[in-house]
Amino acid sequence: EKGGWSSFMAKEISEEPEAVGNTILGRTHDGLVHLEELAPIGDAALKDVDRIVIIACGTAAYAGMLGKYAIEQWARIPVDVELSHEFRYRDPILSDRTLVISISQSGETMDTLMAVKYAMASGAHVLSVCNTQGATIPRESHAVVYTHAGPEVAVASTKAFVAQVTALYLIGLHLAAVRGTLDEAAHRSAVDELASVPAKISEVLEVSQAEIGQLARWMTETQSVLFLGRHVGFPVALEGALKLKELAYIHAEGFAAGELKHGPIALIEPGQVVFVIVPSPRDPSSLHPKVVSNIQEIRARGARVIAIAEKGDAAVLPFADEVIPIPLAGSLFEPLLAVVPLHIFGMELAAAKGLDVDQPRNLAKSVTVE
Ligand code: BG6
Fold it and tell me: What reaction does this catalyse (predicted)?
């Protein structure tokens, strides 16, 4: 039931805080993550893993990309992210030291199911992240970590995405604990950061809804939108672009901001709308000034820049046409906040164009053919 919302998607975006909160619930003990669901694989095998391959399609694959940053940083295991439908067609190198993690909201996506079956047959350990109890993919896997986003009806995934990222972060922390790669204080502070995400998403929803609605109503004639992000902002850019394609039927592309000068900058002409996901100025890496200088470069060529930036980030103000503020968070946790305005934007632009937000043309919620 839509319960007063204009669409299932509007309702589901409003449920993003709970999707994260409920996915964390019961999975921490004394401030540390422990996933009982991983017992079928077992600590000895998890200690022995030398490589992780994440397989998924669409939005779930972008969640997987974020999982890569977190798992590599915390558990120090190399992670590859592969589209399910590419995975098994090139004789991938798997062993009993490989952990394959599948991600699927529905648990029925045929491309991902076939990849899971292939991984099982090859002797790898297979863990699935799924939002649907008892679905086929978790039944075909060694272990499952359910996301608790609640049923998702709108075809384009929103609350399941943030829940998937949350589950992957929990898996990263569990692996780090098993392998002793993260000191306890850092583990606790990551858990605190994650626990603070739901309230911060609520703040983003409150602050950005009206501004983005207005932005979308101005953009109903727009033909092309670009999204730029760097490090964990890159998968967010890809996700923002996918939502615009799926929902508003607008040609949209997400780029790694560092790649701009290697090609995409040629696309910038006066009036081109570019969303930029800006890293925190507090981040110890030097990415913030680099992304700000990307903004200056595209602005100088006439782009219309919409920056998603930490609130109080004064450096972007002179160069952005619009700034959508997000609360302060550690860099791995920013994507869970920055993605929210992009979900709203895709939905609002589709609605402003008079399109069916929940049932975009040509798409199905779960694709059960290969
Ligand atoms: C696509 C949907 O068909 O399948 C996407 O349009 C979704 O929104 C993708 O991300 C994967 O679906 P699932 O159920 O495997 O997560």
Answer: D-fructose 6-phosphate + L-glutamine = D-glucosamine 6-phosphate + L-glutamate
Ligand 1 atom closest to Cα of 109?
15
**Structural tokens at position 139:** 């039944």
Ligand 1 atom index nearest CA of 132 = 14
- Ligand 1 binding pocket (C-beta < 6 A) is 57-60, 104-106, 109, 112, 155-157, 363, 366-367
Task: Quickly count helices (H) and strands (E) in the chain.
Answer: 12, 12
ipTM of the complex: 0.92
The answer to whether residue 365 is catalytic is yes
The residue to which tokens 């997000």 are assigned? 326
**Most ligand 1 atoms within 8 A of CB, residue of 54, 55, 57, 62 to mutate:** 57
Neighbouring C-beta atoms of residue 76, cutoff 10 Å: 13
Task: Provide the 10 A C-beta neighbour count for residue 149.
Answer: 27
Q: How would you classify the pairing of strands 28-29 and 32-33? A: antiparallel
Q: How far is the CA of 230 from the centre of ligand 1 (A)?
A: 24
Q: What is the pLDDT along the chain (370 residues), one digit of tens a residue?
A: 788 999 999 999 999 999 999 999 999 999 999 999 999 999 999 999 999 999 999 999 999 999 999 999 999 999 999 999 999 888 899 999 999 999 999 999 999 999 999 999 999 999 999 999 999 999 999 999 999 999 998 889 999 999 999 999 999 999 999 999 999 999 999 999 999 999 999 999 999 999 999 999 999 999 999 999 999 999 999 999 999 999 999 999 999 999 999 988 889 999 999 999 999 999 988 899 999 999 999 999 999 999 999 999 999 999 999 999 999 999 999 999 999 999 999 999 999 999 999 888 888 877 787 8
40 CA to centre of ligand 1 in angstroms: 27
For ligand 1, the distance from its centroid to the CA atom of residue 245, given in whole angstroms, is: 14
Ligand 1 atom closest to 58 (CA): 10
Closest to 280 (Cα-Cα) out of 288, 292, 272, 269: 288
pTM: 0.97
